[in-house]
Amino acid sequence: MYIEGGEVTDFYIPSLGEGQIFADTPDAGNELMSMKYATNDIAILPEDNKIGLDFLKKTGFGLSATTGKRMILGKDIQWQPSKFYSRISGGYG
Question: Domain range holding 51?
Fold first, then answer.
């Protein structure tokens, strides 16, 4: 977990679903991914997170043709896929 100015800015929660990683900065995202994928060989993140995908390729992960859809109910949120480095479960929200 990274805290800046008294606020959590980046985090990895191993026990939350598949181990969510959210990071404001690429450096924090890569560091948290290093922790997770040292012991985990399955990674799922948005295709718009180019930095996260590059990290995975450099560490030996292969790309899959499998895709998912992001679903919304009601008013959409400000979606920032580049900040999601690992999902919680089958939905991105």
Answer: 2-86
